[in-house]
User: Which sequence fits this backbone?
């Protein structure tokens, strides 16, 4: 308990469906506790809207621990808001001051159509993984785990890339709406491990092709994606992906 | 209702192999003719869907999230157990079995638990082959650590994100089979009912969470992997969308619900900060390997914890349990936190917290070493509380975390409704009255990768499953009932929000059906639940309509189910006149507060049959007696 209360003004994007015209609506909350999470602040707004007989603001969320990647919104022009390495569910109102106005929009990209308000359709990400983001090992056919040592350096590198939560902030932040960081992270994760080698070439070709098919743009090295990534995926993932893609293009084996 | 556990005869070590040798097999060309509906895409659901599809079955996979990758298994932090004995510290399958059955306080089925220990090693092999980046030593080989309640190091981990990495492995396996055309993938669909035709589970009803459309799906078997029901408490470590609806609707269609009162309260969570709190965040109990739990000896001591000298600190776990110390199982740690705070020694503004202190570990190993082990957890803590745990002790308090109870299943993980299989946290199997740390991931994946794929084959091969059309009367009845319930909720048009009702229900549950229970409190809880449920149906306000994305409507029907489940949990806790595992009845404890089990009268699985709801929940108790052939029942002692 405790903590100080603030007044917060909100400008939130409201849109009834993919084809509907969207608009900003403004709201004011008087009792925002500094210890609230950003999403709890929106819960309070929604409770207020329901009490007033209005429709609550729809937004995606689930774990509220920064790991499931459900939440995804653009706050004052920044995906996941102002705090580095922080998903919006882990952002707390102590990062704001009394009287602030906060603008909240969905993650906008042609490949992420709006479903309602701040909820967008990110199924394109699933289809990119589906194209090749795995090791084709059947249940039951795995060798004994310690028969395949992985040096700690590469194991750690692989882990760093594997932590991607698939939230789509990288796409929202990119001027080209590119999904290169997301796609590169999976490619780099599997490339760093011996298990990923047999399918290395086909994987990169298939995933990059799918990424383009979904309508994501290409990468122009703005690095905005890295800046907003809540788990700190490095853009070296994109370099890995491009290097591998070039190699795969010219490798006719 | 007849409960046949179908446990194979013979020595414990060979039951599973014997069973595999005896069950029906289905030829590959016949597998292609069958269709399995898998509900949920957590560890159990994703691994089952992928494995069944690899075998050749046609699978439809449903999840409520926008992607299978977001199922709540993703949030598991600590690790996964396996009896590999890599550290050469004497671990065996038998030891993992012993620890798990003892940890569950002898309220689980021996044969199931032994099988779990047996397949544990294969899970690690499978995950590593998929590219799951477990922690490794400098040699490049896999690293292990000791984890809550174990005296050997058998826990495999991927920093503090083991659940995430294992889930992504299973998710990717599933994506591969979608690509192969063997899985029809249906995200943003919520199961609202089970369709039973001629006594067998033959389909489900879902609501499309985007369009609101009620849809019908038929199949030869249904695998329910929909997780636990901890959110009945409103505040828990579960994700906001975790819910009991799919399981509860199966219960109302005839599936027995077993041991609903067994709820694990995790000892190391970040304490509640205010009324607006929407969920609680777990700090992995791996922290207890290096952190020391204490409270000030002086009640209401408001000094900075770093200024409180050693002799004025009460390291209550170390003092009361010298051999396990801070590593006692979760139920013991939670109960003791409640005891010291009930005695007025709690800290912080609410008095409902204790310290978890890393000062000594940092002095011993250095800040960098601690950072390497727990960096992300420390960051998470600082992010949420604004306090730096490298400089001052964390504040922690127990929170609802995992539900051991769930739908009753036999050895094949099939419920008492033929064709309805239940895996992972959604079933009651394996953990008894208390789950050990790093065992949930093990069980979810054991069920999905290594049990369900065989036992479903046995069921399909052994039954005549003529095709059922979704035009069948049973589908129509179930779909209409689902639509009607949503309309009913929308048309109450009362004054109180769903969340407000849920919060109040959660408070009743936490206060009276929580860490410690007693007859008087449980009887009160039942009355309060009933009257709040009545008010809910008269006065809830659900905004909007059913024909589009409407989160509040989803919550409303889930909360409606919690109101029924809550009563069953209290009834179950009331009938269990003993303390076992996470179920502590104040009336059944020793003078120094240790739980007293009653093996004579309560060594059974309480399986409840739904009999109707008429102001009060009508439920009939069936008992599956637990027979222990291979272990000797002991009073648990971690002293």
Assistant:
């Amino acid at each position: 308990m405790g903590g100080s209360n603030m007044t917060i003004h909100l400008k939130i994007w409201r849109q009834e469906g993919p084809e509907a015209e969207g608009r900003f609506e403004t709201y004011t909350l008087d009792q925002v506790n500094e210890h609230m999470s950003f999403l709890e602040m929106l819960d309070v707004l929604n409770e207020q809207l329901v009490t007033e007989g209005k429709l609550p603001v729809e937004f995606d969320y689930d774990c509220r621990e920064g790991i499931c990647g459900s939440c995804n919104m653009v706050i004052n022009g920044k995906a996941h808001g102002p705090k580095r390495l922080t998903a919006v569910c882990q952002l707390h109102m102590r990062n704001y001051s009394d009287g602030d106005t906060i603008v909240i929009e969905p993650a906008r990209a042609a490949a992420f159509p709006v479903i309602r308000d701040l909820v967008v359709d990110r199924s394109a990400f699933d289809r990119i993984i589906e194209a090749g983001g795995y090791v084709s090992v059947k249940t039951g056919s795995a060798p004994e785990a310690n028969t395949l040592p992985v040096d700690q350096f590469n194991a750690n590198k692989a882990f760093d890339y594997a932590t991607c939560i698939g939230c789509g902030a990288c796409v929202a932040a990119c001027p080209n709406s590119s999904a290169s960081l997301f796609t590169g992270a999976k490619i780099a994760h599997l490339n760093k491990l011996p298990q990923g080698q047999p399918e290395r070439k086909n994987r990169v070709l298939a995933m990059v092709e799918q990424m383009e098919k979904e309508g994501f743009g290409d990468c122009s090295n703005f690095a905005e994606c890295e800046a907003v990534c809540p788990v700190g995926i490095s853009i070296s993932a994109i370099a890995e992906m491009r290097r591998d893609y070039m190699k795969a293009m010219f490798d006719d084996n | 209702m007849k409960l046949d556990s179908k446990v194979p005869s013979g020595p414990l070590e060979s039951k599973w192999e014997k069973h595999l040798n005896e069950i029906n097999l289905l030829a590959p060309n016949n597998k292609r003719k069958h269709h399995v509906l898998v509900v949920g895409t957590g560890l159990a659901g994703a691994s089952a869907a992928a494995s069944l599809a690899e075998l050749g079955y046609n699978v439809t996979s449903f999840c409520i999230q926008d992607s299978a990758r977001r199922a709540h298994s993703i949030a598991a932090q600590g690790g996964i157990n396996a009896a590999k004995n890599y550290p050469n510290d004497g671990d065996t399958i038998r030891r993992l079995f012993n620890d798990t059955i003892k940890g569950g306080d002898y309220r689980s089925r021996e044969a199931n638990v032994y099988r779990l220990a047996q397949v544990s090693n294969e899970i690690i092999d499978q995950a590593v082959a998929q590219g799951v980046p477990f922690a490794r030593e400098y040699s490049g080989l896999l690293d292990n650590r000791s984890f809550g309640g174990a005296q050997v190091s058998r826990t495999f981990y991927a920093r503090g994100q083991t659940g995430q990495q294992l889930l992504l492995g299973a998710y990717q396996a599933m994506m591969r089979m979608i690509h192969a055309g063997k899985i029809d993938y249906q995200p943003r669909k919520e199961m609202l009912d089970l369709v039973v035709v001629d006594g067998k589970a033959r389909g489900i009803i879902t609501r499309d969470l985007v369009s609101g459309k009620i849809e019908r799906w038929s199949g030869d078997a249904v695998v329910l992997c929909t997780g636990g029901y901890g959110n009945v408490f409103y505040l828990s470590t579960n994700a906001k969308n975790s819910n009991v609806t799919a399981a509860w609707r199966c219960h109302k269609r005839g599936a027995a619900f077993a041991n609903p009162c067994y709820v694990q309260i995790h000892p190391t969570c970040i304490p509640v900060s205010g009324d607006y709190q929407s969920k609680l965040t777990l700090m992995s109990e791996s922290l207890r390997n290096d952190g020391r739990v204490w409270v000030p000896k002086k009640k209401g001591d408001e000094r900075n914890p770093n200024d409180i000298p050693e002799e004025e600190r009460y390291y209550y776990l170390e003092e009361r349990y010298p051999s396990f110390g801070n590593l006692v199982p979760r139920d013991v740690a939670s109960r003791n936190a409640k005891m010291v705070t009930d005695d007025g020694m709690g800290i912080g503004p609410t008095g409902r917290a204790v310290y978890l202190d890393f000062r000594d570990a940092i002095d011993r190993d250095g800040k960098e070493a601690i950072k390497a082990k727990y960096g992300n957890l420390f960051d998470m803590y600082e992010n949420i509380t604004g306090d730096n745990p490298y400089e001052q002790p964390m504040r922690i308090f127990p929170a609802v975390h995992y539900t051991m109870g769930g739908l009753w299943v036999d050895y094949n993980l099939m419920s008492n409704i033929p064709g309805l299989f239940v895996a992972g946290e959604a079933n009651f199997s394996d953990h008894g009255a208390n789950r050990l740390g790093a065992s949930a991931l093990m069980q979810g994946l054991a069920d999905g990768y290594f049990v369900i794929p065989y036992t479903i084959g046995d069921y399909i091969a052994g039954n005549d499953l003529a095709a059922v059309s979704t035009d069948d009367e049973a589908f129509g009845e179930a779909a209409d009932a689902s639509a009607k319930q949503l309309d009913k909720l929308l048309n109450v048009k009362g004054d109180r929000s769903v969340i407000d009702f849920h919060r109040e229900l959660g408070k009743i549950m936490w206060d009276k059906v929580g860490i410690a229970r007693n007859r008087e409190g449980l009887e009160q809880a039942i009355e309060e639940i009933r009257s709040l449920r009545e008010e809910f149906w008269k006065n809830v306000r659900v905004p909007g309509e059913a024909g589009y994305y409407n989160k509040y409507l989803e919550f409303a029907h889930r909360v409606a189910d919690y109101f029924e489940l809550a009563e069953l949990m209290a009834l179950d806790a009331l009938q269990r006149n003993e303390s076992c595992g996470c179920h502590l009845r104040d009336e059944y404890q020793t003078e120094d507060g240790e739980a007293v089990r009653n093996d004579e009268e309560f060594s059974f699985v309480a399986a409840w049959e739904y009999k109707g709801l008429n102001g009060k929940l009508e439920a009939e108790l069936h008992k599956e007696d637990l027979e222990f052939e291979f272990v000797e029942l002991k009073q648990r002692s971690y002293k």
Q: What stands out?
A: Chain A touches chain B through 84 residues (CB under 8 Å). The beta strands of chain A are 5-14, 23-33, 74-75, 78-79, 101-105, 114-116, 119-120. Chain A has two domains: 5-115, 123-250. The helical segments of chain A are 38-51, 123-132, 152-162, 169-173, 180-191, 200-213, 224-228, 236-250.
